[in-house]
Amino acid sequence: xxxxxxxxxxxxxxxxxxxxxxxxxxxxxxxxxxxxxxxxxxxxxxxxxxxxxxxxxxxxxxxxxxxxxxxxxxxxxxxxxxxxxxxxxxxxxxxxxxxxxxxxxxxxxxxxxxxxxxxxxxxxxxxxxxxxxxxxxxxxxxxxxxxxxxxxxxxxxxxxxxxxxxxxxxxxxxxxxxxxxxxxxxxxxxxxxxxxxxxxxxxxxxxxxxxxxxxxxxxxxxxxxxxxxxxxxxxxxxxxxxxxxxxxxxxxxxxxxxxxxxxxxxxxxxxxxxxxxxxxxxxxxxxxxxxxxxxxxxxxxxxxxxxxxxxxxxxxxxxxxxxxxxxxxxxxxxxxxxxxxxxxxxxxxxxxxxxxx
Length: 357
Known about the structure:
By secondary structure, the chain is α+β, with helices and mostly antiparallel strands.
């Protein structure tokens, strides 16, 4: 009799070895699909992490912005720079500075056209980017710039912003927005010249502490609110990526299901013999389930490795969360279980009499 878990496993492993080539082809296909799913998860999460990194890099915990901006960092809604002085003298404000961010500008870097975001800051105040050791120094002149590494403008290079040339004196990392567009920092008056024709406007007053009163038309937003509001600008993109990720899991299930369906058809007589020897339909279906789960789990392990070598596919920042790696084997098991139901009828309908025909 073939009843018993160890005998079921023996039959399953024997079939896996017998059809090793078929299972290997399916495993490679599923691994590639799962690797793409991981990368898409990292792409969607990258939109979130870049906003968090850029907002946190300012060093403030509250932002005074126009009410109409709803706290969105890329929602260009400017107001007079003079308001920064009003906010600075409000009770509850320990430190403050004017800040200007203008998204979606175009620059020439190394002869190539680059989309970037310009940030105007006051050196030594909130918003002034901290330059890592060995990557140059901070802003110390009107003709200087600090650029995110994705601008591909190393220290000492010259970038053409607006009608002016700036020497890159320092680089930072993780300061991007809108899917990887780098932030280039210059002194506030220079940013106003580049983007606003010299008009004394800003898009935020960044503070440490909460101003008790702000002028009409302005509101105080926490950094966490600014992060969420800025993320919301790309929610449609993130939703599309998440839908594509879900499609990847469906494709993986279809690949495994096709493999099991063909294997089940080829094993029709084997199922009949096993039933004649005492195996139940549940035993035979269990064998198919084990095969499917083994393939998807091994494919998941391969996908983790492959994903690290496939990051070149995307030019945007990728940030695969730890939760994605934790969830991957669980999803792999679900994919295997769902796929195995395609071969359910072949396993349960096998006629023991056919073993002797």
